[in-house]
């Protein structure tokens, strides 16, 4: 069988030079001259409001666009920020500010810090229980949370002033009192939003951003690369919430009052629409979406039909989003996000794999690499595995065969932590791993591929491999600090390693190709390369030859042999008997969840129980 390409080849190279400064340059220039160019104070106020929505949409984009987590209660974090500063500057420090208005310049940073902490806590409160929820459940939970915060703001009268709200919040002037020109307020908000965008952009360009996109693309695979998915999802909530909290503070000072009418349920949908309109998952899409919408809304307000029916404005937004989703599903700025700028060489480096020399192995013991004992897996009424016991020894390729539905993939899922076994034990280098999450199993040195190839389709091949190398890119905290040289050095080293692995798996030519534009054999090899990037000690291959032709299968056998020679032990599930018999040192045969044979390929070939199970009546 030969492979046919179904999608055109898409090559994506990082933007270098001046090109990458177009959007930030445009934002800075337009942002700086806007108050000078706009006709009058009314429009400067509109521009300041647009900046508030830029920050809101960019923060929500971290959740919805990058990480793929729907949040319909996002405005709650904005409310937290706005009320924090209102309570601080009016209730707590009000008398002090009256006596000394300049005190605003130290009270404001405190307000911002407290807003970050409170909104961050609110973000983790909503984030934590929703970590296991997706889709509809997540949407409803976030919507509910948003409403709880709004209702609390209405009813907690002694703190929030109830329906009346809090008035006389100091303006964003240099003196902290008096009448402040709108242009000054605008520039303060512009600086804040520019800083927020810079922080978000550097976070997105760091390994954290790549981990978020990996979670959005395929959470299960991201976990099997060692990414602690719950931690990163929680981080996305905290970052998104803190962004809304900070801009909430400045919004309150801009308006000089807050009350429950300042924030409606509808605002959640508007901000979400702006993210989608501009381009979810892009850096500049939400910025553009917010600016266009707020200005459009301000223009529309002058039309009599909109004055009579203000609800038309939201209706128009909904209509625009629907039309855009049909014509341009990626949003106005549908430009793909760059997930690394690090570049290696132009020519293929020497093919190499981080090899494990058993003699230096500090964990070297006489124990087997993997010992599975009495493993049982029950799905509802179906027993997929029944008391399965076997071992993988050092330096071995272990074949796993059995008819369809025998339980092979179920076994691999249990070993790699994708599913939790019902009973029994799994030891990897003497350590019990059957209760561990798949990310923890991966960090201990177990990598895997999937029966149906599961790449991060929207990423390039190199980016796929960098996700595989994620756990080595410094600790959790430095992963945030992408602009700093030591993180970039780490990234460059990982890129070099990825390129060596690409050469090793003979996929160097695909380095900058979008994964979705690879042919079937390239996909298989890239999936193996990505697994090898985790520097595994054991590699689990689930039917890697499915869909390959004869010569590709022979190549694959050679690749498996060189992986083993590099010190990685392999468990190979395969229906292709030639490959299984040539590549394996020993074969375990499963049938109906039970091991019926375990021995060298020659013995298995002649084993009557195997012939009976595999070939049925043809065995005779
Ligand atoms: N998550 C699940 N929930 C319910 N049943 C499952 C689940 N996963 C697997 N099964 C069932 O467990 C049995 C074993 O399936 P498994 O995929 O492990 O077989 P396999 O040996 O890998 O087969 P194949 O060679 O066709 O991939 C099948 O009957 C399957 O329907």
From TrEMBL:
One of its GO terms (cellular component) is plasma membrane. The keyword Transmembrane applies. The lineage of its organism: Bacteria, Bacillati, Actinomycetota, Actinomycetes, Micrococcales. The keyword Chloroplast does not apply. Residues 370-617 form the ABC transporter domain. SMART domains: AAA. Its main location: membrane. PANTHER family: HIGH-AFFINITY BRANCHED-CHAIN AMINO ACID TRANSPORT PROTEIN BRAE (PTHR30482:SF10), HIGH-AFFINITY BRANCHED-CHAIN AMINO ACID TRANSPORT SYSTEM PERMEASE (PTHR30482). It is found in: Cell membrane. The chain crosses the membrane at residues 21-38, 44-66, 73-97, 103-125, 184-213, 234-254, 269-296, 316-333. One of its GO terms (molecular function) is ATP binding. InterPro entries: AAA+_ATPase, ABC_transp_permease, ABC_transporter-like_ATP-bd, BCA_ABC_TP_C, LivM-like, P-loop_NTPase. Keywords: ATP-binding, Cell membrane, Membrane, Nucleotide-binding, Transmembrane, Transmembrane helix, Transport. This is Branched-chain amino acid ABC transporter ATP-binding protein/permease. CDD domains: ABC_Mj1267_LivG_branched, TM_PBP1_LivM_like. It is a multi-pass membrane protein.
């Amino acid at each position: 069988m030969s492979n046919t390409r179904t999608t055109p080849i898409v090559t994506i190279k990082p933007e270098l030079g001046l090109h990458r400064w177009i959007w930030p340059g445009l934002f800075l220039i337009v942002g700086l001259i806007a108050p000078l160019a706009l006709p009058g104070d009314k429009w400067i106020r509109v521009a300041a409001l647009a900046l508030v929505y830029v920050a809101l949409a960019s923060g929500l984009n971290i959740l919805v666009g990058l990480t793929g987590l729907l949040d319909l209660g996002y405005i709650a974090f904005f409310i937290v920020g706005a009320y924090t500063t209102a309570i601080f500057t009016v209730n707590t420090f009000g008398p002090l500010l009256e006596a000394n208005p300049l005190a605003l310049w130290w009270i404001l940073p405190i307000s911002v810090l407290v807003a970050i902490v409170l909104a961050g806590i609110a973000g983790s409160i909503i984030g934590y229980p929703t970590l296991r929820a997706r889709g509809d459940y997540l949407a409803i939970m976030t919507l509910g949370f948003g409403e709880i915060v709004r209702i609390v703001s209405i009813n907690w009268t002694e703190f929030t002033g109830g329906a009346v709200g809090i008035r006389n919040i100091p303006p964003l002037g240099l003196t902290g009192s008096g009448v402040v020109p709108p242009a000054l307020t605008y520039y303060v908000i512009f600086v804040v939003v520019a800083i927020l965008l810079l922080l978000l952009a550097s976070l997105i360009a760091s390994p954290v951003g790549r981990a978020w996109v990996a979670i959005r693309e395929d959470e299960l695979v991201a976990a099997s690369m060692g990414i602690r998915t719950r931690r990163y999802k929680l981080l996305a909530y905290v970052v998104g919430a803190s962004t809304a909290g900070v801009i909430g503070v400045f919004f309150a000072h801009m308006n000089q009052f807050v009350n429950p009418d300042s924030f409606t349920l509808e605002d959640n949908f508007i901000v979400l629409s702006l993210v989608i309109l501009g381009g979810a998952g892009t850096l500049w899409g939400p910025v553009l979406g917010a600016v266009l919408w707020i200005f459009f809304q301000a223009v529309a307000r002058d039309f009599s039909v909109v004055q009579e029916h203000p609800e038309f404005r939201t209706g128009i937004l909904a209509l625009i989003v629907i039309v855009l989703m049909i014509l341009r599903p990626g949003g106005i700025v549908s430009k793909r996000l760059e997930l690394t700028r690090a570049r290696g060489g132009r020519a293929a480096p020497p093919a190499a794999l981080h090899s494990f020399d058993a003699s230096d192995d500090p964990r070297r013991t006489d124990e087997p690499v993997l010992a599975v004992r009495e493993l049982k897996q029950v799905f509802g009424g179906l027993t997929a595995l029944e008391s399965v016991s076997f071992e993988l020894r050092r330096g071995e390729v272990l074949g796993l065969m059995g008819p369809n539905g025998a339980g092979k993939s179920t076994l691999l899922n249990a070993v790699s932590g994708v599913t939790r076994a019902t009973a029994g034990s799994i030891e990897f280098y003497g350590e019990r791993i059957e209760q561990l999450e798949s990310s923890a199993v991966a960090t201990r040195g177990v990598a895997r591929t999937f029966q149906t190839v599961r790449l991060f389709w929207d990423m390039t091949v190199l980016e796929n491999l960098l996700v595989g190398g994620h756990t080595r890119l410094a600790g959790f905290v430095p992963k945030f600090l992408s602009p700093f040289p030591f993180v970039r050095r780490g990234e460059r080293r990982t890129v070099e390693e990825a390129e060596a692995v690409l050469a090793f798996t003979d996929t160097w030519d695909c380095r900058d190709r979008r994964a979705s534009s690879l042919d079937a054999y390239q996909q298989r090899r890239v999936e193996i390369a990505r697994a090898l990037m985790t520097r595994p000690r054991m590699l689990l291959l689930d039917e890697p030859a499915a869909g390959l032709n004869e010569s590709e299968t022979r190549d694959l056998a050679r690749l498996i042999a060189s992986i083993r020679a590099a010190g990685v032990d392999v468990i190979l599930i395969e229906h292709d008997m030639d490959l299984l018999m040539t590549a394996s040192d020993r074969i375990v045969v499963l049938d109906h969840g039970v091991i019926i044979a375990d021995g060298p390929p020659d013995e298995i070939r002649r084993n009557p129980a195997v012939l009976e199970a595999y070939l049925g009546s043809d065995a005779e």
